[in-house]
Specification:
alpha/beta; D-Maltodextrin-Binding Protein, domain 2; 7-stranded mixed beta sheet; two-stranded antiparallel ribbon; 11 strands; globular
Length: 300
């Protein structure tokens, strides 16, 4: 390899990567613990050293140029490698031990966390992991959990959030149930269908009617606040419900209905309190969870 051709600074490349991931200089500066002017100078210096424009300013936001898009995948790979190097070095320098609690929905905890936990155990066997599987939002500021996996971005300034993946939600029902009642061909076909609601039926109904579904409160014969219970009820023929594509792909005997219906976007946020900056064990678990969830979301 001709090392003389590698002339850019890693800090500048990292500034570019985080700005692209976060969507703005201000958000990237917060993520890196830098001032916005400092981060802006690093991005500008990288553009000058490479001789390309990486971002265009559109209003108050930044948009990647075509060269920026083409270079992003390369820098993202560098970032992942740097993260693995950092974690490996941390493991060599001193033992990381202690308790870390993660709160997530039942579905996330059942289907998606065990592989990530296996990676954490291999990297830092001294960490004790606790899963708080519930749809209840735990208060991280009161230390009800160390890390949360949520589908909405928190707004409180004491919390740090990272978008680690995105999926979509669709209508599903058990194949056996559809064999018995028929498969809907258009939204009007489910006007009298039984639905399984999640949480508050009124709020749940609003999301579905916004998609143009002709259903009413009376359609919800059963409700629960547990995704795994919804799955069990669907398999018993209790009706139609909403699942994310990730969860449905892991469930046998379930099929999507009305596939042309507009999908519901579901972001996946990893959230922690600002102790992430000082606690090595929480930072380690946070980074490994982010890496594993992002990888699995991208391959789903």
């Amino acid at each position: 390899m001709n090392w003389e051709t590698v002339t850019f600074d890693w800090n500048q490349a990292r500034a570019f990567l985080v700005t692209a991931e976060e969507g703005s200089l201000s958000a990237a500066a917060r993520a890196l613990g830098l001032t916005q002017p400092t981060l802006g100078r690093q991005v500008a210096a990288l553009e000058e050293s490479l001789g390309v424009t990486l971002f265009e300013r559109v209003g108050k936001s930044l948009t990647l140029t075509q060269p920026g898009l083409e270079l992003l995948d390369h820098v993202r790979g560098m970032g992942e490698a740097a993260g693995r190097f950092s974690l490996a070095a941390s493991g060599q320098s001193q033992t990381i031990e202690g308790h870390v609690s993660i709160t997530a929905t039942n579905m996330m905890a059942t289907f998606h966390l065990p592989p990530a936990f296996k990676k954490i155990r291999e990297t830092a066997p001294g960490i004790e992991l606790e899963i708080l599987a519930s749809s209840e939002v735990r208060d991280l500021r009161r230390r009800e959990a160390d890390i949360a996996i949520r589908h909405g971005r928190p707004e409180h300034p004491e919390l740090i959030a990272k978008l680690v993946g995105e999926t979509t939600a669709h209508l599903y029902a058990a194949s056996e149930h559809l064999d018995a009642v028929g498969r809907p061909q258009c939204p009007e076909d489910i006007a009298d269908a039984d639905f399984i609601g999640f949480g508050d039926p009124t709020e749940y109904l609003t999301h579905l009617t916004d998609l143009g579904l002709p259903i009413r409160r009376e359609n919800f014969k059963t409700t629960t606040n547990s995704g795994t219970v919804i799955l069990a009820l669907m398999r018993q023929g209790f009706g139609i419900s909403v699942l994310t594509k990730q969860d449905a792909d892991k469930a046998d005997g379930i099929e999507q209905i009305l596939p042309d219906l507009q999908p519901i976007p579901i972001p996946i946020w990893l959230v922690t309190h600002r102790e992430l900056r000082t606690s090595r064990r929480i930072r380690l678990v946070f980074n490994l969870l982010a890496e594993e969830i992002s990888r699995r979301a991208g391959s789903s």
